[in-house]
Amino acid sequence: MDPSRTFTYVEMKYFHMWYTRLSAPRKEMVKKLIKSGQLEITQGGWVANDEACTNYEDIIMQMYIGHQFLKKEFGVTPRIGWMIDAFGHSVTNAALFAEFGYDAIYFS
Question: For this structure, is 58 an active site residue?
Answer without folding.
Answer: no
